[in-house]
Amino acid sequence: MKVLVAGGQGQLGRQLQEVHPHGVQGEFRGRDQLDITDATNVREVVGEARPDVLINAAVMPVEACESNPDVARQINVVGPRNLAEACRDFNVHLIHLSTDYVFNGRGCLPYQIDDPTGPIQAYGRSKLEGEQAVFGAHDRVTVVRTAWLYSKFGTNFMRTMLRLMGERDKLTVIDDQVGTPTWAKPLAEFLWAMARSSAPTGIFHWTDAGVASWYDFAVAIRGEAVRAGLLDSSAARVLPISTAEYSGTTNRPHFSVLDKSKAWAWLREQAPDVRVRHWTESLQEALTSLT
Ligand SMILES: NC(=O)c1ccc[n+]([C@@H]2O[C@H](COP(=O)([O-])OP(=O)(O)OC[C@H]3O[C@@H](n4cnc5c(N)ncnc54)[C@H](OP(=O)(O)O)[C@@H]3O)[C@@H](O)[C@H]2O)c1
After folding, report:
1. Atom 47, ligand 1: which residue's CA is nearest?
2. Domain for residue 65, yes or no?
3. Is 97 in the pocket of ligand 1 (CB under 6 A)?
4. Within a domain: residue 69?
């Protein structure tokens, strides 16, 4: 079977490459080889490659969307629609990535798939519209909402913390935004499992297990990194601050834990070899792999 990955040079794209299973032909296209905002380019690439499955890992990230909502719409809405239309015409299953930020964060229990959405920043609004665009264009679509991704690739919270902890004496980190830190590797394994077993359609939630604030996550990164020898014990101390005290301008949900029961039930039936990990276990493994 053949799987084409759009956004193949981003964090998740590179993680998908790293755990690319034997027996599956993977094509990982960066923006220079597949610009999802260019409908003609999308049709040409999908028509030539004729994959069985296309995974869309291309995105305009959170902060950039706030200052460029029009470009955000092109990448996070028009691009996914272009992909869905080409997938429809060439009978390709589309797996599209989305986000916990489609919710407003005023909940206090894990968000169910069909809970009302209500994004509170440009990124979430464009990602929600992207979900609607792909379902509106094609029947064979799976949307996987994930959250708080980190890995050894690209720019992410774990890598930023490791750098800053090595440079500073102390760091302040928000303690009143709660979600689930999620290692991109198990997510990539889940996506490959879906791609290989005629993925079901509809929306799935996927993160690692458990709950944390950004502050909890930062404290755990420091502890594990010192234990693994990536930082010494003089690394920056981590101090909690509230969202109100933080200088960032983008609205972020206070609570964005996702209910994963549908994905985990699917895995138990279809791909029991893919292991669900608590986020602390993932973090330990991710940091150990950096040593
Ligand atoms: N990162 C998170 O914490 C997080 C949380 C929730 C959900 N997600 C979702 O997970 C998915 C993957 O995120 P990620 O962290 O891997 O993002 P990422 O590291 O920012 O990678 C996104 C990739 O998309 C590419 N791209 C941008 N515009 C494009 C275009 N017009 N055509 C083709 N490629 C384009 C970027 O290329 P350039 O470098 O050239 O711009 C980049 O390589 C996204 O759907 C995101 O919404 C991520």
Report:
1. 98
2. yes
3. yes
4. yes
123 is catalytic: yes
Helices 79-89, 39-49: axis angle to 10 degrees equals 40
Structure confidence by residue, pLDDT tens digits, 148-162: 999 999 999 999 999
- Residue 247 pLDDT class (50, 70, 90 cuts): confident
- Domain assignment of residue 72, yes or no: yes
DSSP H helical segments within the chain, as ranges?
Answer: 11-18, 39-49, 62-67, 69-73, 79-89, 122-137, 157-167, 184-196, 214-227, 261-270, 279-288
Residue 173 counted as domain residue? no
- Name the residue among 226, 196, 18 with its Cα closest to residue 93: 196
CATH number of the domain that residue 126 is part of: 3.40.50.720
The answer to whether 62 touches 127, Cβ cutoff 8 Å, is no
How many structural domains comprise the chain? 1
Which domain covers residue 8, as residue numbers? Answer: 2-148+183-207+255-276
Q: What is residue 199's predicted lDDT score, i.e. its pLDDT?
A: 78
